[in-house]
Model the fold of this input.
Amino acid sequence: MTANTSEPSVHEKVRQQFGATAAAYSTSTGHADRTALAALVALAAPRTTDTVLDIATGAGHTALAFAPHVQRVVAYDLTEAMLAETAKNAAQRGLTNVATQQGPAERLPFPDAEFDIVTVRLASHHFADNATAVREMARVVRPGGKVVVVDNYGPEDDALDTLFQHIEKTRDPSHVRGYRLSIWRKFLQNAGLTIEQEVTDHYSESPRGMDFDDWVRRARTPSDRVAELRLIFTTASLELRDWLRIQIDGDSIWFRIPQVTLVARR
Done:
């Protein structure tokens, strides 16, 4: 199961979506979660001599989390406004070993075996061609190096998966697909990578979960789509409630999105 999507069309949607919302991702609680970022760095176990590539860096949270532990980080993103946020955030922290570079995940402008660690966090579901992006990650990591992926994932059940993808795309039209765990394993293995660790949990932004209103506000979801999403959540089946751990509290909706962390070695 892969996304057969026009690459230029997807890239334009991503630029429009994240160019307009870049600043919101600097302050997003979940994206900036220092505990989660520290756990990710520990899982990747970087060395002080390592060079890291962070793909679809967004506001740079992952790149900046690795920077104090390695020699150099390249923060790479399709959207110029996101790279500006990364550069600003790096300067505010006094980090001088972070460089930014613009481009798509499907065509990395780097030589073979250039990096010791390649990361992508909370972004792969926006890629036009994730299989190609993963092959590019494998190409630019050195033999023995690691590719580290964190992203939401879809259910194996077809009907539930269709609804989950609809929810994500209704909220943010630049969403392409949250892939099933079975497909993620194939992406990595088909790229010549060996999966060493697979950790599943849930993406959240508070002890209660994710606040529906904050979630749609950050994406600037139009009001008619917000109304549609609210109806889907408040009338959710038991299967959807369980998948997203939906909790309704008066007018408030709280939920969590299934997330996987994969560490693979070339």
Notes: Strands lie at 51-55, 72-77, 98-102, 115-121, 141-152, 194-203, 210-211, 247-249, 252-255, 257-265.
